[in-house]
Every structure is written in structure tokens, then in C-alpha cells.
TrEMBL record:
This is Class I peptide chain release factor. Residues 106-138 are annotated as: Disordered. It comes from the Bacteria. NCBIfam families: PRK09256.1 (NF006718). One of its GO terms (molecular function) is translation release factor activity.
């Protein structure tokens, strides 16, 4: 079970983890050992509450395919176990990020004093710039 919150968790059988060869430098070891991890998680077919599913599917994230499958590739560490833990942590973080409801924006207006201060600053700046013009020759 991958815990998301106090009441929500993802069962291990819904997460598909496969070992692959890592990219990049590493000498002979990188060609022989499959230490990177590919994690796949099907959002529509999961046991997550509908609230999480709709928010995840609406998310504009390159890790989520058009079919609603989360694909995470973890190859930060040299061992398979650490990469597996890293992939699971990144999946949990992604799911937790949609659980937070964004605070509604309350429209505000600038005060009358702030408006006057802004206009005064603009006229003062305009006067300064006007002094930079050509000086008449007498």
C-alpha cells in the first residue's frame, strides 16, 4: 500500500513496476544491470476516489498519457531498490498535489491613495524625462 493521505492509499497491485537499463554514464555496469525503474499507474482503472481521478486526468503533466496512465522513469540512483522507492515517492507526490484545493482568488481594487500616488509618480517621471530634450541654442 502506497499511502497518500490518512484515508486514501494505492494498493501495490495497481502499480506496475518494471526494471530497465539506465541511460547515461556508468561504464560496463550500465550495460549489464537493469537498475532503472519504469512505473506505470492507470488512473481510470484505479481504486482512487473520483475526486482524485478527475483532478489527475485534468492535470497538464507530460508524465500522464492521453489514456490516463502515469509513466514515471526513475534512474537517479545506482541501485534498483532506491530507484523503486524514488518512483513510488514521485507518484505519491503527484497524487498528493491534486488533493490540495487551490485557494479562491478574491478580487481587490487599489485604494484611492494608491491611485493618486501612481499618477503623481508618473507625472514626476514625465517631467524628469522632459528635461532630457535638446537645449535651445541662444
Amino acid at each position: 500500500m502506497l499511502p497518500i493521505s490518512n484515508k486514501v492509499s494505492i494498493p501495490e497491485n495497481e502499480i506496475d513496476i518494471s526494471a530497465i537499463r539506465a541511460q547515461g554514464a556508468g561504464g560496463q555496469n550500465v550495460n549489464k544491470v537493469a537498475s532503472a525503474v519504469h512505473l506505470r499507474f492507470d488512473i481510470p482503472g484505479s481504486s482512487l476516489p473520483d475526486f482524485y481521478k478527475t483532478r489527475l486526468l485534468a492535470l497538464r503533466d507530460r508524465r500522464i498519457t492521453s489514456d490516463g496512465v502515469v509513466v514515471i522513469k526513475a534512474q537517479r540512483f545506482r541501485t534498483l531498490e532506491k530507484n523503486r522507492e524514488d518512483a513510488l515517492a514521485r507518484l505519491a507526490e503527484l497524487v498528493r498535489s491534486v488533493a490540495v484545493v487551490p485557494k479562491a482568488r478574491k478580487a481587490t481594487r487599489p485604494s484611492l491613495t494608491a491611485k493618486r500616488r501612481r499618477v503623481d509618480e508618473k507625472t514626476r517621471r514625465g517631467r524628469t524625462k522632459a528635461l532630457r530634450g535638446k537645449v535651445p541654442i541662444q
